[in-house]
Design brief:
The chain is α/β, with parallel strands linked by helices. The protein has eight helices and nine strands. Strands 3-2-1-4-5-6 form a six-stranded mixed β-sheet. Strands 7-8-9 form a three-stranded antiparallel β-sheet, with helices on both faces.
Length: about 270
């Protein structure tokens, strides 16, 4: 059992539309050869047009899910997504420090859905900054999230760099500040770690199928890190996977449609 790799515990909310949240996490991790476990933090009534309702899972239930999966199956990486409140963030941070202090942590600071719906309160943002960002293996904010977390304007690659630097100053071991919300025909993602800086860029894909792209990328990074890849290689592989998922999007829904998480798998004829 000790030689097994690829186990990822995802702590996040559920998306009834299947394009983001826990559903996207499970699909991404599985597609990249990992094994996904979950601690569901919230049930959302959600589709491609927006979030129509949110029900929080009781704290005891969230922590219970974390405890049993860690104790029985074990874990190689932990990925967090939608957490919602400062009470939940603080409790999760404390539990992970107690039960999995040396496990890689990939923090996706989910604050706003693709549709624009707010998913975490102000106290929750501060708790993410103070309790989850420090000692995270990788934190993966988009430009608006990076601005909120760091107080730095993120309107260019230089802004992404400044935000990444600030996240490292806050204690993160790695910060990937994504450029999808920054204008231009080329998207550049800026990765900084305690070992250096990497820039990843590629042409912008003109599409409305962007629902769950943040969840998908962060979970793909977690799956690869859990299997032993270093952070830069994991980011590169996750970006390639996400790009293929966007390019092969099924076109479902009336709003921001989902990507195709299984694009690399053999289809059933």
């Amino acid at each position: 059992m000790s030689d097994l790799k690829g186990r990822v515990l995802v702590i996040a909310g559920s998306d009834s539309g299947g394009g983001a949240g826990i559903q996207a996490d499970i699909k991404s991790i599985t597609a990249l050869g990992g094994y996904a476990m979950t601690a569901v933090t919230a049930i959302t009534v959600q589709d491609t047009t927006g979030v129509h309702g949110v029900w929080s899972v009781p704290l005891e239930a969230v922590l219970g899910q974390i405890d049993v999966t860690l104790a029985d199956i074990g874990v190689d990486a932990i990925k967090t997504g939608m957490l919602g409140s400062s009470v939940l963030v603080e409790a999760i941070a404390e539990r992970l420090s107690d039960r999995a202090p040396d496990t890689a942590r990939i923090i996706d600071p989910v604050m706003v859905a693709t549709s624009g719906d707010r998913l975490v309160d102000e106290k929750g943002v501060e708790a993410i900054r103070s309790d989850l960002v420090p000692q995270s293996t990788l934190v993966t904010p988009n430009a608006p999230e990076a601005e909120v977390l760091t107080g730095k304007a993120v309107e260019s690659v230089d802004g992404q760099r400044r935000a990444a630097e600030r996240l490292l100053e806050l204690g993160a071991l790695g910060a990937l500040v994504k450029g999808g919300h920054v204008g231009g025909d080329t998207i550049t993602d800026v990765l900084q770690t305690t070992q250096g800086e990497w820039l990843f860029d590629g042409p912008r894909i003109q599409t409305d199928s962007t629902h769950g792209t943040g969840c998908t990328l962060a979970s793909a990074c977690a799956a690869l890190i859990a299997q032993g890849k270093d952070v830069p290689d994991s980011v590169e592989g996750a970006r390639e996977y996400l790009r293929g998922a966007i390019e092969n999007a099924p076109g479902f829904g009336r709003g921001h449609g989902p990507v195709n998480h299984g694009w690399g798998l053999k289809s059933c004829d």
